[in-house]
Specification:
single chain; alpha/beta; Metallo-beta-lactamase, Chain A; 7-stranded mixed sheet; 7 helices; 16 strands; about 20% helix; about 20% strand
Length: about 350
């Protein structure tokens, strides 16, 4: 009996050690002390951390549909859809050999492919779950495009290092692509095998300019972190993209703030903006936007068309899966902004394509 107990204990310890090693690999490397030292001259880096333009507010006694607890991320959400959501399955053969002039494929949550002026960009690609451990924070359903079916990508654009935006296995599958990422995120990419020359890190108001594509990193009210002790050691960005006479604003994750009007006044109008509409909760009121705030932000940006993202894949904030899109669509009425709600995997041309209410 003692021997059996010992064997069981050894197996449990081995399992726990294996999980720890797996999680550590998923977390990725953080910037070195020397790298962090180079950020000290930046006005938005202080006391060893990047700083949000607005102080983030937390009120965990006021969590809507709470209380929030980590155990809920290990099981199917009670707010998930009752049946699989519609999607258009994509294979690499479904894409043209030459990228289009102005095309978008929403892949679910904050993942999307944008073809702009003959270049193909992939944003925040996540095809699995949204946590460093297997099965934790599960998806509602499969992505419309598999990681194995990814085609040639010119640029992979990452907004920040949270697990629902940055996925190790996908980075490694695309390691020969060029990456545009926030300051500090390059450390994880290099640790996962991406050559240093394929990585361009941008701070706020930094510009990447190549082959007719201009990408300008902009602020966001948010935070970063993938494990214990690494909070805000890397930056989080929104992005302006300009090419072929088109202008796009990729909002990323953000709370509402004055940066929208500032960006809209200086760089707007935008032919297309994407905006996160899910992840809000009264317990963390300004790490993500409430749907009515997202609608206001789109008006301040002077967006002509908007694609809502950051919804329909994960339960991150304790509300029914379709609540945010219902509220956002209602709040946007009368604004004059074109609301585009493609199916996951659907090809659309902003300004030309019509979409339906499918949820």
């Amino acid at each position: 009996m003692k021997r059996m107990i010992a064997v069981v204990c050894v197996l449990i310890l081995a399992f726990v050690a294996g999980l720890a090693l797996y999680a550590r690999r998923e977390m990725g490397k953080m910037p070195s002390e020397a790298e962090l030292k180079t950020y000290e001259k930046l006005p938005y880096f202080k006391d060893g951390e990047f700083q949000s333009p607005q102080k983030l507010v937390y009120d965990f006694d006021n969590v809507r549909n709470g209380p929030a607890n980590w155990a809920r991320f290990l099981m199917k959400s009670p707010f998930a859809p009752e049946k699989p959501l519609p999607r258009i399955e994509l294979k690499s053969k479904d894409f043209a050999d030459k990228p289009g002039e102005f095309v978008l494929y929403w892949l679910g949550h904050s993942s999307a492919i944008i073809e702009l002026d003959g270049k193909r960009l992939l944003f925040d690609p996540v095809f699995g779950n949204a946590a460093p451990l297997p099965l934790a924070v599960p998806r509602y359903g499969k992505a419309p495009l598999s990681r194995e079916d990814l085609l040639a990508i010119d640029y992979v654009v990452i907004t920040h290092n949270h697990y629902d935006h940055l996925e190790r296995r996908t980075v490694q599958a695309l390691k020969l692509s060029r990456f545009i990422v926030p300051l500090g995120v390059g450390a994880a990419l290099r640790g996962w095998g991406v050559p240093d020359e394929n990585i361009r890190e941008l701070g706020w108001n930094d510009t990447f300019d190549k082959e007719g594509l201009r990408v300008i990193a902009m602020p966001a009210v948010h935070y970063s972190g993938r494990g214990l002790g690494d909070r805000n050691k890397t930056l989080w960005n929104s992005y302006i993209l300009q090419s072929g006479g088109k202008s796009i604003y990729w909002v990323g994750d953000t709370g509402y703030g004055s940066h929208f009007k500032t960006i809209g006044d200086k760089y707007g109008p935008f032919d297309l903006a994407t905006v996160e509409i899910d992840g809000w909760n009264t317990g963390w009121p300004n790490t993500h936007m409430f749907p009515e705030e997202a609608a206001k932000a789109m008006q301040e940006l002077k967006a002509k068309n908007v694609v809502p993202v950051h919804w329909a894949v994960f339960d991150l904030a304790l509300h029914p899966w379709h609540e945010s899109i219902d509220m956002f669509a209602e709040a946007l009425k009368g604004s004059g902004i074109g609301l585009l709600t493609p199916l996951m995997g659907q090809k659309i041309i902003p300004g030309e394509s019509k979409t339906e209410k499918w949820w």
